[in-house]
Amino acid sequence: MSKHNDIIVSEDDDPFSIQLATEGVELPSESKFRSWVQAALGDLERPKPPDASIPWVNLRIVDETESAELNAHWRNKQGPTNVLSFPADVPGFLGDVVLCAPVVVDEAAAQDKRVEDHWAHLTIHGVLHLLGFDHQTPDEADDMEMREVTILKDLGINNPYLER
Fold first, then answer.
1. Which among 160, 146, 76 is positioned nearest to 117, based on CA atoms?
2. How far is Cα 81 from Cα 38, in angstroms, rounded to an integer?
3. How far is CA 110 from the centre of its chain?
4. What is the rounded distance in angstroms from the CA atom of residue 54 to the CA atom of residue 123?
5. Reduced to 3 states, what is the DSSP secondary structure of residue 79?
6. How many C-alpha atoms does 137 have within 13 Å on its Cβ side?
7. Domains defined along the chain, listed by start
8. What is the C-alpha separation between 17 and 83, in angstroms, rounded?
9. Model confidence over 36-66: pLDDT tens digits?
10. What is the pLDDT of residues 72-127, one digit of tens each?
């Protein structure tokens, strides 16, 4: 997965599609992203979409320029960010999760984390936002972090909130 603007739509009944809009960063495999999305979704049943080609979750992997543009437009914040979530109002489609590849890789290095573990964490974090979880209050943050840590532990990934 390294081509610019590739769109990979997975098989029927797979809750996942991915758009690659970045170059120059080694990415986890499509199967890894799929497993992280599925882990975040858990045992949820998907409502039937009006069109069978609609994924349940779309991931878009972007560069810093696109991330900064989206962050400025939708959050009024300057600069790129690691993950943005855009819930949808379409039956059977939860929405889009946008991950900024260079930011994810840089953060992993700065935080002394395995880069693949950081990709997993931020993918799950983004999908949980699509499911309605948030971290605007301390109680919301505690609940969301607990869910993330539990999902990651089930995947064999350490708690990302522990200091190293």
1. 160
2. 23
3. 20
4. 19
5. coil
6. 4
7. 6-154 (3.40.390.30)
8. 16
9. 999 999 988 888 777 777 888 999 999 999 9
10. 999 999 999 999 999 998 888 999 999 999 999 999 999 999 999 999 999 999 99
